[in-house]
Structures are given as C-alpha cells and as structure tokens.
Write a structure and sequence with these properties.
The protein is built from 4 helices and 57 strands. It is mainly β. The protein has 7 domains: 3-116, Sandwich (Immunoglobulin-like); 124-231, Sandwich (Immunoglobulin-like); 241-327, Cadherins (Immunoglobulin-like); 341-436, Immunoglobulin-like; 444-554, Sandwich (Immunoglobulin-like); 561-654, Immunoglobulin-like (Sandwich); 662-774, Sandwich (Immunoglobulin-like). A hairpin with a 4-residue loop joins strand 7 (90-99) and strand 8. Bound molecules: 2-acetamido-2-deoxy-beta-D-glucopyranose (7 copies). One 2-acetamido-2-deoxy-beta-D-glucopyranose binds next to loops. One 2-acetamido-2-deoxy-beta-D-glucopyranose binds at residues 683, 696, 717-718, 720-721.
Length: 828
C-alpha cells in the first residue's frame, strides 16, 4: 500500500468512524489519546496521524499491539486486521517520537484503543437439555427451576443482554400455558392456570422448548429442551376432627397434622373468628394439638386455618382449613326454669283441665339423649282434700288436674315437687299452683233503705249527701269483689252520682248538678251495687244488691232568670221613635212578678216597658254616632227581697244614607297665576259620613250652574276625586266662586252643592301673592310671601330714611339707591 493510497483510505475511514481524534481533527502533535473503534471492521484502517516535532523525525509504537496496530515513520497510526472485542476489549499502546539517531525525544505517551462491541456472538444455553420437577398447586410465579444461557457480547450493550421465552409446551390442552419463564432470569414457574390445573394423576410429564435471544439489532437465538415432572401436592386440608368434650387425658393431645411439600416450612395456626380462648397449637412438623379440655356447651365446633410460610414469613400456599367438632357427653344435669314456677287455676275447673306446661332445661346437645328430659310429680303440699290432685305428662311436662275440681276454701295454694331427669341426672323443681276465685258472690247492701234526706235547692254541686255501703265476699281487690254503684231510678236528670272508695267499697252519693225545687222537689232514688266483672253463670243479682233513699229538696228564693246572658237586636238608624226593637223576658223561679228597667242608657235612645219588657226607641238613632249601642236590662222582683238579674242588650244600628256628601277638606287658597299661560286644573275630593260599601264611595261631580260650562269643566277621576279645569285663558285677575254638585249615589241618593273659590292672581316666583289677613286661620303660601314682602317694605322705608340722611350729609349722589327702596305693595 502506497502512502498516497493510505492517505486516501485514511480520510474515508475518518469520516466513517465516529469519535476519532479531537475537535474533528485527524492529525496533531503527540499526546495521550483515547480512541474507540468498532470490532470486526475491514483491516488497514487509519486511526490518527501524529505530527513530528523537530528534532523528532520518526515514531515508534509499543504495547498491546497484538500484531494488529502499526505506526508509519511519518506518524500514521492504523490497524492491519479487524479488531475483536471478545479477545481484547481495550488495547493499551504507547507511541514515542524518535530523532534521526533513533533516540526518544518525546513519549512514550499512552494511546488507548477501546474496542466497541458489535453483535457477533449468539447466546448459548449452558445445557442442551434440562430436567426439573414441580409440585402440584405450587404458587404461580415462584420459579421451581432455572435455565441459563450466555452471550460473549458486551453485557453492557443489547448485544449481550438475553431474553428467555417458552416456545413450546407439550402437551398443551385448549391453548392454555401451564408454565412461564421469567424473560430475564430464566426462572421457570407455573402460571395461575398451571397452579390450578396440574395434576400428576392426569399427566405426569411435560416438555418445554425454551428459546433465548439477545437484544442486538440483528438478534441471535438458541433453544433448549426442558423436561418437567409433576409431583403430588401433600399440602392438603385434613379430615374433620372430632374431640370428645371434657376429656381427662393429659394435654396437649395431637388431633391431626398438615405438611408442606418441601421440608423447612414454618407452620402457624390462624383463628377464623376471634375467640376468648383458642385451645389449639401446631409444631414445626405440622402436627396440630388441642391444648386443653373442650366444652361442647361452650362451643360445639371450631374452624381455623393452618398456614405454611417460608423463612421470610411469606406464605408458601393458600391456608388450609381445619374443622374440629366437639362431641357432647352428658355432663349437664337438667335445670329448673326458675326457682319456683307459678301456675294459676280457677275454682271449679273440670278434671283433666290443663294448668300449664312445665319445661326444664338441659345444656347438653339438643335432640340427643343427653338433653331429653322426663318429668315426675313426687310431692304435693297440702294433701288436702286428698293427695295426687295433679298429674304431669312424662315427656311433655303438661300439668293437669287429675282427681277433682278445686275450692279456694279448701286451699288457695298447692306446692308441688317435680323431678326432672335426663339419662344420668335428676333435678328437683318447685311448682306452686294458686287457686283463683271466681265471681260467684253478689254485692249485698248493709241496708235496703237509707231513709229521708233533706237538702236546700242551692246546695253546692260536689257536696256529698250520703254514704252507702255494700260488701262482696269474693276475693278482695279483684274485679269480682270491686263494686260500682248505679242510680237506677229517680234521677233522670243525672243530678246525683256515686263514687266508690276502692279500699272499702263505700259509695259516696255526690251532687253532680244543682237541685231544683221547682222542677223536682222529691227524688225517690234507687241504687244498684254491681261488680266490675260479670257474675259466673247461674249467679244473679237479687234485691239485696239494691238500696233506696228519698231526697227532699227545700225551696230557696232565687233571683229572676234570663234565658241568655247577652241579647242582641238590629235596627235601621231611621226607625220611627217608639218602635219596638226587642222584647226581654225573665222568669222568676218562684213565679213572682217582675219589673224591667234599663241601666247605662246614656244617650236616651231606648226605653223599656216596665211590665212587658219591650224595648222601644226613645229618640232618633244615628249610626254615625254609635253603630253598636249597649245597655243593660235589669229584671227585679216587685216584692221583697227584690232579687234581680242583669243582662246585656246590644243593639246594632244599620246604616241609612242620611248624610249628604261634602268636600273632603277646606279648599282654601286655590289659585292660578294671572294671566293664564295655558290650561290649568286642580284636583279636589269629596267625602260622606254614611257607611260605605267595601269598594268605597262612588260620588259623581258636576258644575252647579249651566252658564259656567263655557269657562270651566269638572271631570271625575275616581269615586272620590275630580278635576276642575279651565276652558280658556280669558279670566280676570280676581277670585271666582264655582258651585259644584256632588251626588253620593246612595239609597236614596243625596246631593249637595259646594263651592270652590279659585283666585287668579299675579305670581311672585310661581306663587300667588295675597295681602295678609284676608283669610282667617292658618297662613297660606301667598300669605307667607305677603308677610315677607311687608317686612321687606318696612326695612326698605327705614333704609330709605337712613340713605336720605346720608345723602343729605354727603351731598346728592347715588339717587338710584334711594329709589330702589320704594317698593309698592302687590295687589291681591
Ligand atoms: C448462568 O451462568 C452464568 C455462567 O456460568 C453464571 O454466572 C450465572 O450465575 C448463571 N445464572 C443462573 C441464573 O444460574
Ligand atoms: C420481559 O418480561 C417483562 C414482564 O413480563 C415484559 O415487560 C418485557 O417486555 C419482557 N421483555 C422482553 C424482551 O420480552
Ligand atoms: C366435666 O365432667 C365432670 C364429670 O365428669 C363434671 O363434673 C364437670 O362439670 C364437667 N365439666 C364441664 C366443663 O362440663
Ligand atoms: C308453699 O311454699 C311457700 C314457700 O315457697 C310457702 O310460703 C307457702 O306457705 C307454701 N304453701 C303451702 C300451701 O304450703
Ligand atoms: C220519710 O218521709 C215520708 C213522707 O214524708 C214519711 O211518710 C216517712 O215516714 C219518712 N220516713 C222516715 C224514716 O222518716
Ligand atoms: C240474694 O242472694 C244471696 C246469696 O247470693 C242470699 O244470701 C240473699 O238472701 C238473697 N237475697 C234475697 C233478698 O233473696
Ligand atoms: C283617586 O284618585 C286620587 C288622585 O289621583 C288618588 O290620590 C286616590 O288614591 C284615588 N283613590 C282611589 C280609591 O283610587
């Protein structure tokens, strides 16, 4: 190769190679340098041209040249063969500059050649065939074996990085993969499907073809074959365990065991429900123990979990459920439902009647011999009138009357002893039977006639007039012996009532309404004593349950009585004097003559006829004065003691249209500015004292005389207001009186003629001026202006006098000032 050829080659190479030299230069002085060059390239590649510095004339190359690197005397560094990273990844070279004599003048300086990797090595499995085994139900994703491949390329580049894949699984059913491989580590594990479905009894052996591939741009790959044997899972739920309760054997006692597929697992028990005590344990062989005697009555079964973990306490597989049943033994005697069971039975019940069911308890397991109870009656107290009055059904516990009906008189109570037994135990229980009374006795009065009573008719309501007494020999304080008293005759008005004392059954006859001599001077009363509960059939109330008395009512002179407290009447306000508006009648209980009079009649509108009670008008009424007229009417006995009663009388006076309409107020000072500049108008209102409909008054307005219509116009605004307007401008500067007719439209209609005074006057600042004193009463705006102007006039005159004085003193200047003060009064 000639230097020229080399030079040309050199440039081509420099452009193709990246990272050469420094600052894009391909030549330079001798100094330490590092070059990176891809392996496997064509030989005779120029790397760099060193420039000799006199006296240096030539260069020498030493170091790890491996016969590949050379340097020409002119400093051109190149390699003659392809580099191979896998043989040497870094070449440490040294270059020295020599003078003509061959003596070193510079260097040696280190030149480092880094060989960059290209993907020129395929991955290779370390074994062409692997064998392994996996336990049925192993945790998915947990590797049970590894395959391993190597690649000589730089592991720092994709060329040397490997990825594993399962290519083929044999056999394969329904396209479901049971195995998977970690593409980085080569660890082979089960898929979730594999963990679930692998079963050595169905298929024992599997074969996988695994590929490995590097990740270079143009990857290489290799395959290997893996034979896998499936082993049975011995991590299985143990059979349910049955433990007899209350065991006296020394504890702990082994009851069952679990075992993980491989040795070295740690075992634990986990409670499924939180219990006050957990009487089980497990050792590191997987043996499960019960640690103390169990009690069926406390808890009849236990369910808990056994878990296996690895040394890092990570679960190796799903927990196993352990089921323990506690077997009952008859270790509980029967118990009584309570210290004493009480039943009741009525007197006279028939033989065979059910008294009640007695039920004992047993804590042992239900529906077994251990809790099956039997009943036996062993004693009865008292044994009167005979023994064995009762019997109990052996298995049902039903207590029945066996010999005869009971009588409370014989014994009101029986104490029974009942023996309750199960297979091994006997318990004695107490039962008390109470005999209850029935309502077979009637109340009997202590006497049948309580004689004559006398009370005045004004005796206060609530007074007790008599105490009566009946007795009942049924059981006290029951509905069979409690008495209520009913008045059955002689008091249809309900004037009397009887209250019963619950302790003594005494009856208090009490006045509930006033007595009335005039209506009922004698009351012949009959009282019945009854029980609250009905009598048993065959027993009836008889005469002994009735009593009577006679009540004489004495007369008392009473005041006359009106039938109401307030009387009302209504009358039109225009009724004629002497009209009867109401008739008042009072009655004297004793039938005495009465005389009537009025009280509080201050207006003198009404009078009353002393004997008949007629109320008449005595004067003209006026609703507008008083629409509700109230007086009092007195009815008095005409003889001693002149007892009297007073009631209210209210007379409502209804309206009649008897008031003509009028102006709503005094319209004073109505004025328009003179001369008129345009049409003017003013608003006025009317009113009426009569009662108005709810919509308000409806007045109509019109001019009071025909000839005014050429100058004025009246127009209605609404029911109360109207507008008075001018019809032209030609009014004189004076006051006009305009008569206006107002009609109230009532029944009958009333009309009035009113007058509005309107003044046309000269205006000062838009207001009319009028001299003082023309209108009595309160000052109008015009009057106020007048007062003001008069005041100004007086001040003006004073000023004029002052000015004239000054002028006299000063000598004749400023004539206008004095003239300005001569203010003339304005005309009305
Ligand atoms: C694979 O083999 C290489 C070389 O023998 C070794 O360094 C590496 O640890 C192995 N990897 C595995 C997962 O066995
Ligand atoms: C390797 O597996 C991981 C996780 O399964 C996946 O994300 C990744 O893409 C895989 N790499 C290759 C090269 O298949
Ligand atoms: C266990 O049995 C004995 C008799 O064998 C008994 O006395 C004891 O009460 C029983 N204990 C329990 C908790 O049932
Ligand atoms: C029944 O027993 C109770 C005590 O439990 C006692 O007070 C009562 O007098 C006894 N009755 C009879 C009739 O013996
Ligand atoms: C009760 O009054 C009546 C009638 O006045 C009279 O016949 C009778 O004897 C009186 N009875 C008694 C017990 O006073
Ligand atoms: C009413 O009956 C009772 C018994 O229930 C009896 O003692 C009494 O004599 C009877 N009275 C009359 C008036 O028959
Ligand atoms: C009637 O008209 C006058 C003036 O417009 C007004 O003030 C008044 O409220 C009106 N009255 C009714 C009842 O509308």
């Amino acid at each position: 190769m000639t230097p020229a050829q080399l030079h040309c080659l050199c440039l081509v190479t420099l452009y193709l190679t990246t990272g050469y030299g420094e600052d894009g230069k391909f030549s330079g002085p001798l100094k330490a340098m590092t070059f990176s060059i891809f392996e496997g390239q064509e030989p005779s590649q120029v790397i760099f041209q060193f420039k000799a510095n006199p006296p240096a004339v030539t260069f020498k190359l030493t170091g790890e040249t491996d016969g590949i690197f050379e340097i020409q005397p002119n400093g051109l560094l190149y390699h003659t063969k392809p580099l191979d990273r896998e043989r040497r990844a870094v070449h440490e070279l040294q270059v020295s500059a020599l003078d003509a004599q061959g003596a070193t003048v510079e260097g040696p300086v280190p030149i480092t050649i880094e060989v960059k990797d290209i993907n020129d090595n395929p991955p290779r499995f370390l074994q062409s065939k692997y064998e392994g085994s996996v336990r049925q139900n192993s945790r998915p994703g947990k590797p049970f074996m590894y395959v391993n491949a190597t690649d000589l390329d730089d592991p720092a580049t994709p060329n040397g990085q490997l990825s594993y894949h399962v290519l083929i699984q044999l056999p394969k059913v329904s396209e479901i993969m049971y195995f998977q491989i970690n593409n980085k580590t080569g660890g082979i594990s089960l898929t979730p499907d594999g963990s679930r479905s692998l079963d050595p009894t169905k298929n024992l052996n599997y074969n996988l073809v695994i590929s490995v591939r590097d990740m270079g741009e143009h990857p290489f790959s290799d395959t290997t074959s893996v034979d896998i044997t499936v082993k049975e899972n011995i991590w299985k739920m143990p059979e349910p365990v049955e433990i007899i309760e209350n065991s006296t054997d020394p504890h702990p006692i082994k009851i069952t065991q679990v075992q993980w597929n491989e040795p070295g697992a740690r075992y634990d028990l986990v409670e499924k429900e939180k219990l006050p005590r957990f009487p089980f344990s497990i050792d590191q062989n997987g043996d499960i123990f019960v640690t103390q005697p169990l009690d069926h009555e406390e808890k009849d079964s236990y369910v808990f979990h056994a878990i296996a973990t690895d040394e890092n306490r990570k679960p190796l597989a799903a927990p196993l459920q352990v089921y323990v049943k506690v077997k009952d033994i008859n270790d509980n005697p029967p118990t009584c439902p309570s210290e004493k069971t009480v039943f009741e039975i009525q007197e006279n019940e028939n033989i065979g009647s059910d008294i009640g069911t007695f039920t004992g308890h047993d804590m042992d397991e239900k529906n077994t011999e251990n809790s099956l109870l039997k009943y036996k009656l062993v004693d009865q107290t008292p044994k009167f009138p005979q023994d064995n009055l009762f019997m109990i059904q052996t298995y049902l516990g039903l207590l029945q009357l066996s010999k005869q009906s009971l009588k409370k008189q014989d014994s009101s109570q029986y104490n029974l002893t009942i023996e309750v037994s199960d297979k091994d135990f006997k318990t004695v229980c107490l039962v008390q039977v109470n005999v209850i009374d029935i309502n077979d006795q009637i109340p009997i009065f202590e006497k049948s006639d309580y004689g004559n009573l006398t009370f005045a008719e004004n005796t206060a309501v609530g007074t007790t007039i008599l105490v009566i007494q009946a007795t009942d020999s049924d059981e006290p304080f029951t509905g069979s012996s409690k008495i209520q008293y009913l008045i059955t005759k002689g008091d249809s008005e309900g004037r009397l009532g009887v209250d019963t004392d619950p302790q003594t059954n005494a009856g208090y006859v009490i006045l509930k309404k006033p007595l009335d001599f005039e209506a009922a001077p004698i009351l012949n009363i009959m009282v019945k004593a009854e029980n609250l509960e009905p009598l048993v059939s065959g027993v009836n109330y008889n005469e002994s349950s009735y009593a009577s008395f006679t009540l004489f009512v004495t007369n008392v002179n009473e005041a006359p009585q009106f039938s109401q407290h307030v009387f009302q009447a209504e009358v039109r306000e225009d009724v004629a004097i002497g009209t009867t508006v109401a008739k008042m009648t009072a009655v004297d209980p004793e039938g005495l003559d009465l005389s009537y009079s009025l009280k509080g009649e201050e207006r003198g509108w009404l009078r009353i006829d002393r004997t008949t009670g007629d109320i008449l008008t005595a004067a003209r009424l006026d609703r507008e004065t008083e629409s509700l007229h109230r007086v009092q009417v007195v009815a008095a006995e005409t003889t001693k003691p002149f007892l009297s009663s007073t009631v209210e009388f209210h007379l409502t006076i209804t309206d009649v249209n008897d008031n003509p309409p009028r102006l709503a107020k005094d319209y004073i000072g109505l004025s328009f500015c003179y001369p008129l500049k345009g049409p003017e108008s003013l608003i006025f209102a009317a009113t009426d004292d009569d009662k108005q409909s709810f919509r308000g008054p409806h007045f109509t307005f019109s001019l009071g005389s025909e000839h005014l219509k050429k100058d004025w116009e009246v127009s209605k605004i609404n029911g109360t207001h109207a507008r008075l307007s001018t019809k032209h401008k030609g009014f004189e500067e004076r006051a006009y009186n305009i008569p206006i007719r107002i009609n109230d439209g009532g029944q009958p209609p009333l009309e009035s003629l009113v007058s509005l005074t309107v003044t046309f006057c000269t205006c000062v600042e838009g207001s009319c001026y009028r001299p003082v004193g023309q209108q009595p009463g309160r000052p109008t705006v015009g009057m106020a202006v007048g007062i003001l102007l008069s005041t100004l006039l007086v001040i003006g005159i004073i000023l004029a006098v002052v000015f004239i004085r000054i002028k006299k003193n000063k000598g004749g200047d400023n004539v206008e000032n004095t003239q300005a003060s001569e203010v003339k009064p304005l005309r009305d």
